[in-house]
Amino acid sequence: MRSSQQQLIHMVNQIVANNQYAGAEKAAQITSTHMQKFWARSMKEDIKQYLDSDGSELCDTAKAAINLLSPSS
Q1: pLDDT band at 69 (very low <50, low <70, confident <90, very high)
Q2: For the stretch 25-58, what's the b/e string if a residue is b when 16 or more beta carbons lie within 10 angstroms of its beta carbon?
Q3: How do residues 9-58 score in pLDDT, each as one tens digit?
Q4: Chain centroid offset of residue 30 CA
Q5: How far is residue 73 from each of residues 3, 17, 18, 23, 31, measured CA to CA in Å?
Q6: Minimal CA–CA distance to 71: which of 41, 50, 34?
């Protein structure tokens, strides 16, 4: 069974993969917007903490998307 952190990593990478047709920069924007609208604050905080502490399982576009999230989300 996956940990909640593993689930978040999988979800953000999957959202990016589903939007790669738009190119990396646009996919990051789409992914960030999706997280902003649909993810709970705790989910966004957890994925930000993961990026800050390790982030090794995130694709580059997912990292960019997380960095686009507003600081107060």
Answers
A1: very high
A2: eebbbbbbebbeeebeeebbebbbebbeeebeeb
A3: 999 999 999 999 999 999 999 999 999 999 999 999 999 999 999 999 99
A4: 10
A5: 22, 23, 23, 25, 14
A6: 41
Q: What is the dihedral of CA 8, 14, 16, 19, to 10 degrees?
A: -140
Task: Specify the pTM.
Answer: 0.92
Assigned token pair, 20: 């790669």
The token pair at 18 is 């589903």
Instruction: Report in angstroms the alpha-carbon separations of 67 from 2, 3, 55.
Output: 24, 22, 12
Alpha helix (H) residue ranges in 1-73: 4-18, 24-38, 41-53, 60-68
